[in-house]
Amino acid sequence: MINKCLFPVAGYGTRFLPATKAQPKEMLPVLTKPLIQYGVEEAAEAGMTNISFVTGRNKRAIEDHFDITYELEDQIRGTSREERLETIRGLIKDCTYAYTRQVQMRGLGDAILTGSTIIGHDPFGVILADDLCVGEEGIMSQMLKVYEKYNCSVVAVEEVPPEDVNKYGIISGQQLDERHTRVETMVEKPDPDQAPSNLAIIGRYILTPDIFDILRETPPGAGGEVQITDALQTQANMGAVIAYRFRGRRFDCGSIDGFVEATNFFYDRMKQEENR
Ligand code: G1P
């Protein structure tokens, strides 16, 4: 059983300036829900109700979102508007929330290491809220089953166009079946002509806690930052990383194109449900 999930949310979101000048990018809404809520819902669905955030300056809105807003709630109590708070109220009741700050932006690996004081010695999920995922079964739930079978770290992957490999961590290895690969090589943001494949890691991980000691020893890599991909390579060298091709769809909400696609997808889905 894994019940902890870590959300690195310290990044600036410069691609969405000026929208993200004074609010966290994770609070940008797809329809009426902020991105971060989709991520926390996915974690909760997988039974990961112990939620930790690695935050930074200007991220207070996230803490306020996962808390009661007395004045507002008082105002709308007993009206039809109250039901709009149903999903977030459920999450506030069902999950616990902990926060710690990454003081300097030293990369995703460093952000995850910052979370070690909250996570301790248990395996845990990691969700990058920028990657909004939908599937009949949540992606994290699917990954949990992979973890239970293989008992090692798990990364979710999907094929990307070869010219896009330099935006991702790219993996290759021994394919076990249609959906599972035992990872041998992982490279963070390779040049297209040096990429070992076009299988890209998306923002979902299950990590075993030895990753923290490995991260402490991992020097800065691509972009001068400590990369989780490099730390995972150390685990992969021991045969301890499985890449999982998930069932479902992922939207890159860190880009404007992906964000608009996600919005259109959820809008169409909402309309279909209304017409049912
Ligand atoms: C991070 C990871 C990368 C992964 C990507 C998924 O990169 O470093 O390996 O493929 O998330 O979204 P970032 O998007 O933070 O540059």
Structure, described:
The structure is a single chain. This protein is α/β, with parallel strands linked by helices. It has a single domain (4-274), classed as Spore Coat Polysaccharide Biosynthesis Protein SpsA, Chain A. It is 34% helix and 25% strand. It has 10 helices and 13 strands. The chain has helices at 35-45, 60-65, 70-76, 86-94, 108-114, 116-119, 139-150, 210-217, 228-237, 256-275, and strands at 4-8, 29-30, 33-34, 50-55, 96-101, 124-127, 131-134, 153-159, 169-175, 180-188, 199-207, 241-245, 249-252. A 5-stranded mixed barrel has the order 8-11-9-10-12. Strands 2-3 form a two-stranded antiparallel sheet. Strand 9 and strand 10 form a beta hairpin. Helix 5 (108-114) crosses helix 8 (210-217) and helix 8 crosses helix 9 (228-237). The longest helix is centred in the last third of the chain and has 20 residues, at 256-275. The structure holds 1-O-phosphono-alpha-D-glucopyranose (G1P). 1-O-phosphono-alpha-D-glucopyranose is lined by residues 108, 128, 131, 168-169, 188, 200-203, 227, 229, 254.
